[in-house]
What does this fold into?
Amino acid sequence: MKDGQRLWTREELIIAINLYCKLPFGQLDSRNPDVIHLAELLGRTPGSIAYKLVNFASLDPSLKARGIKGASNTSKLDKSVWNEFFNNWDILSYESEMLLSKFENKSIEVVNEISESDILKEGTTREQLVRIRIGQSFFRRTILASYDFTCCVTGIQQAEFLVAEHIVPWSLDQKNRLNPRNGILINALHDKAFENGLITIDTNYKIKVPSILMKQRKLNSIEDYFIKYEGKEIGLPTRFLPDIEFLKYHNQERFKP
It folds into this structure.
């Protein structure tokens, strides 16, 4: 470590990983306003934040699979916190938001733009609902960034049409609810079809259309919206490739062949 530099703390690294997840891979640079803002919060330079984000890229298995190495001088603490985060998405994503609100000196509800009307819901405690809202927001922002705000089926980039969809449903796998490798970015129509097993993605990342729709190919709408995508590879994310085991589950348990 150079003179004048200070060591990164666990808290700072957790917040930096939070930002790493939310930024598209091509925007991990010192000129990014979000990088500059985090630098101000942590009392560091934008360059040091950007360099730490690139360090994380060297630990990201999805990037390694694509031959992207990132910076190579990660510390033992970098690796430890990275592994802690990526093995405990449900816990660490919330902790990272709590820490961020602490450094912002604002409530977690304000930082995440959660209104009181969203919180007051019968049968659910305030803390439970806040955690759910924050988790959903973190998951969506991470999936949007990973897919560069682009539907993996059609290429649509209008955010209002895009859904961060779980491969294994939210209700069935609590540990992987917020794992971005259990997510895809997909438009609302194909999201509904995916949710109901009327399309799936195989382990080669290719789209499969069920026979119930293939038999309706004379309908222009079915041809245009479904059949023409049969066998085509999805638009792959820059990070957090869908986990093969999650895709196997959807193929075997949700898809209607």
